[in-house]
Design goal:
homodimer, alpha/beta, 8-stranded mixed β-sheet, 10 strands, globular, protease (chains A, B), AB_hydrolase_fold (chains A, B), signal (chains A, B), Peptidase_S28 (chains A, B)
Chain lengths: ~475, ~475
């Protein structure tokens, strides 16, 4: 009976872990040229009062800027999201390129509680009291204050907000809530509707599954079978030594927790590869080949029809190592450490537990994963235990609107572009269609993964991405012309 | 030398006292019929996360409401301002009357930190930590949450936001920031531009002066002369016994602080009478006659051409007692206590020190007061000393826009009506002209004081107020029709 109890408890804990996948960037070794780091004194709390301030970091580049008092070049303002700001500079080369064409200054603002912008230094994550200022609203407050200040130096130049993923949500919300500071926003792959009551939590994993299904017909069945095998093996402690051997884990598989983490480790990789299924080599946590989903699926090609369970597991191990270890440098697999690589993850985990609860689940029928329905009560208990907070599930709905309300706030917004990628699972919460023509525009770029349009143009880019970048350029010109 | 030093110190302290006049209502003995008190559990901090909640109070009245699932009557939602919510129910009879005509439900929400809506009970004002959640942004967060909840009960009925004075600012901002929750706003006498950099701080007192000048040509010169006399007498301690006798003060005039408080006591009354110069009897702190400014000016009528200084001071004492003591019940004058009558004033003082620093000053040339230029450094030191906070003077400008920015956020708003009174000094920060026709409309009601339009219709109302109420009714109908 003791064993059964332990398993039951572990399942609960395991499914309580919120899984909000995001691209895990590696810190770039050096930035593109001429980005200068600066610090700005902002208020810890913008919505009450207080004399507490902190230093937020931003980078700016003025080499392209049209320095003309009467007709200054615009400011391209990137709304930093969940990570050190350098990573977004490194992975948004299109913004830099367009700035050079349009005489724009470029500013990248770092999101509070990420990178080096810590409101309470190295005590920022030590208590709920210190963490309570981590929210999208407060981050937008920082950006508003910073911009108000910068505009003085830039002759009140018009501002275009940019962002990808959560940064795209911030860019869109920035234009919605501060239309006087920002003339328009490019909100790439921004799942602004991915909240309770306005999203189907299982759609995300259906899209991931579909990305693999499109590659070849055997891929999803093998991944599904591998999950079924793991569902059995992880619950049978006499088979754990085999899991340890096949998956070459860095830690011994002697607890249910480690055994089941193998499944999480696999699912993270499968999801991230779908999100970052770019048509050329990229460099995230580790270098990844072009079209990683195709490469991953190819690992099942050599399986015989009568492949053993162990062979199928070995194949999925190789498939996910396209993400974790394409260089072959890792000598073992860190199945226990995927959730724990630095402050960035902590900040995102806190946001996922407070104002940004984005429901994701799987039913095991319409997707290739084991069934793990989204459960708000599991999230609740995890968040209370981990951060001492209760999720505010209707925060985004109330403050920024939802897709289900026909009179939602986007109806009142203008000058926001929402590009989405057809391969990107986050399109499940995106603005896929225009809300009103020429003003709040959403569309899908065929063949594109998560905010591919923001990356440096590449000969392998799908046609739709080339078109999208051109649309961005034309729209920005139009917004700037009509703002005057 | 010691005496000189004391005086100098006192002058500094005295002028450091922020003077942000507001109508001082008396708590009504009973409410209009059928208003039911309820409590709503709201979050202490809407913009981070946390599990702390508090009980906010609201009143609602459903007797007029068209209870029809398909076409429910609208909700008239009053955005409570700085005081116990009963006072605004009592003094906004027009909202009730229009609700009866339009089949509307009426909801009056109490502003946090006022009345009985105390986030930390009777410890709400005891520390900067407990006070930091007192701000317009947080109050609007309460209203958004409350409305989201109420709309379920009211079949998602469309909502009209109402408010007068600071409540009008909240109503306008509510529509600007939450257009999905509110289809339109009546923002009566709302000085949403009365902030640093977008208002002339001395205009307020010029308008007050003008209200008295319009009554008769002698009134302002007498008030001015009385101020000049007081400027001398309060600084000469050998004359304090005479001040005590003439002004019949409840406390002895034995300090410069009490002596100079006589001037503040006078100026408050002169200002409040201008703000509440209604054409019929009203009942604020004490009952006031119709057209109190006229009645006050009449107190100078019997002065001889060679009236003594003491006679002129006695006349201004009688003039301001039109405000403080028209019943004659007070046996002495509480010149030291005007700033200290209950929690409502504390909350307003804190707001004036944090997010709502509304600059007011006098130059003694274009107004009838002693020169007291607006000084942000004086405000700074007062606020730090009193509340431990530093004013955030650009809060409203950044979050809600200002009149000086041609691309201000009102350009992006719609469905807001800004009625202003020609007698009301707060028009100095009001929206006096339409920003765009049929959508964001400002105008002046000739002969009206502070948000007279919201009060119960009265045969003595000026014609412009009757017209304004009709405009409000027609616009609300139009907003409701176009919202569907």
């Amino acid at each position: 009976m003791k064993w059964v109890f332990l398993v039951a408890l572990s399942i609960t804990l395991c499914s309580a872990m919120p899984r909000f996948p995001r691209i895990q960037y590696k810190m770039p070794e050096q930035l593109p040229p001429n980005y200068v780091q600066s610090w700005f004194t902002s208020f810890v709390d913008h919505f009450g009062s207080g004399i507490e301030t902190f230093q937020m970091r931003y980078f700016s580049k003025n080499t392209y800027w049209t320095n003309n008092t009467q007709a200054p070049g615009p400011i391209f303002f990137y709304c930093g999201n969940e990570g050190a700001i350098e990573m977004f500079i490194e992975n948004s080369g299109w913004i830099d390129q367009l700035a050079s064409q349009m005489g724009a200054a470029v500013v990248y603002a770092e999101h509070r509680y990420f990178g080096q912008s810590m409101p309470f230094g190295n005590r920022s994550f030590t208590s709920p009291q210190n963490l309570k200022y981590l929210s999208p609203h407060q981050a937008l407050g920082d950006y508003a204050y910073l911009l108000q200040n910068l505009k003085i130096m830039y002759y009140d130049a018009p501002v275009i907000a940019w962002g990808g993923s959560y940064g795209g949500m911030l860019a869109a919300w920035f234009r919605m809530k501060y239309p006087n500071l920002v003339v328009g926003a490019i909100a790439s792959s921004a799942p602004i509707f991915h909240f309770m009551g306005s999203v189907n939590p299982e759609e995300f994993n259906e899209i991931v599954t579909n990305d693999y299904a499109m590659v070849d017909t055997n891929c999803v069945p093998y991944i599904k079978t591998a999950h079924d095998i793991l569902g059995v093996w992880t619950r049978n402690s006499t088979l754990w030594w085999q899991l340890q051997e096949i998956f070459n884990t860095c830690t011994e598989v002697i607890t249910y927790s480690t055994a089941s983490n193998i499944i999480n480790w696999i699912d993270n990789a499968l999801t991230y590869m779908a999100m970052t299924d770019y048509p050329y080599e990229t460099n995230f946590l580790e270098p990844m080949p072009a079209n990683p989903v195709n490469v991953a699926c190819s690992k099942f090609n050599n399986l015989a029809d009568d492949a053993t369970d162990a062979e199928i597991l070995a194949a999925i191990r190789d498939a996910v190592n396209v993400y974790y270890n394409s260089t072959g440098n890792n000598t073992c697999n860190l199945v226990d450490q995927q959730y724990d690589n630095g402050l960035g993850d902590n900040g995102w985990d806190y946001l996922s537990c407070s104002t940004l609860v984005m429901p994701i689940g799987s039913d095991g029928v319409h997707d290739m994963f084991l069934p793990q329905p989204f459960s708000i009560s599991a999230i609740d208990s995890y968040c209370l235990q981990t951060w001492g907070v209760a999720p505010v599930t209707d925060y985004a709905k109330i403050f920024y609107g939802s897709s289900t309300n026909p009179l939602g706030p986007l109806r009142y917004a203008s000058n926001i572009l929402f590009p989405n990628g057809s391969l990107d699972p986050w399109q499940s919460g995106g603005v896929l269609e225009s809300i009103h023509a020429n003003s709040v525009i959403g569309f899908i770029m065929q063949g594109a993964a998560h905010h591919l349009d923001l990356r440096t143009p590449n000969p392998s880019d799908p046609e739709d991405v080339v078109t999208a970048r051109n649309t961005e350029k034309q729209l920005i010109k139009y917004w700037l012309a009509t703002a005057k």
